[in-house]
Amino acid sequence: MTHQLEKVIGDLTKLSTKEQDAIAELIQEELLWDFSLKNSSDKLSILAEEAR
After folding, report:
1. Cα–Cα distance measured from residue 16 to residue 39, given in angstroms and rounded to the nearest whole number
2. Taking each helix axis from N to C terminus, what angle separates 41-51 and 17-39, rounded to the nearest 10 degrees?
3. Rounded to an integer, what distance in angstroms lies between the CA atom of residue 48 and that of residue 52?
4. Are 25 and 32 in contact (CB under 8 A)?
């Protein structure tokens, strides 16, 4: 884990449980979105070619 990430996580521990959960959900959604895009690049290329 990087120093910057450790600092951010330390800062997050100072937030309320509700705020921590909200941020955790945002991070999880972002990770899932990135994963989905990386795994669908071939499909997106095909769709883009068909659209042209």
Report:
1. 35
2. 60
3. 6
4. no
